UniProtKB/TrEMBL annotation:
Family per similarity comment: Belongs to the pterin-4-alpha-carbinolamine dehydratase family.
Official protein name in the record: 4a-hydroxytetrahydrobiopterin dehydratase
Entry keyword set: Lyase
Family annotation (Pfam families): Pterin_4a
Gene Ontology annotations of biological process type: tetrahydrobiopterin biosynthetic process
Amino acid sequence: MPPKISEGQNEAAINAGVDALLGKGWNLVNNQLEKNYVFKTYTKVSDMHHVIATRAKSVNHHPTMISTMSTLKVIWTTHKPPGLSNKDIQMADYCDEQASSIGTVEPSETPQCGPTPSTM
């Protein structure tokens, strides 16, 4: 199902941008672009959150971000007018650039929670 395009946007350009992002691991869910990034440390999760938030503030376009110890889920959509816009495409690309710079890892490379070894 094609995404809803925000009013006033170039439909062909948005669809091409979405297709390119889908090829880079983004998912289209309920007219939102979503991606999970995995990092080796919580500090890198926090760094990623910070660089996205800083850019989002400067372009006045803010995502939903959900973090865990080793992951950051980023969700982009446009609320007014509703749908996907060029800002969503640009910011998703920016996220990928920053994730590459910060350094993502495979989920198997992240620390696992478990019992602390005893120090007897």
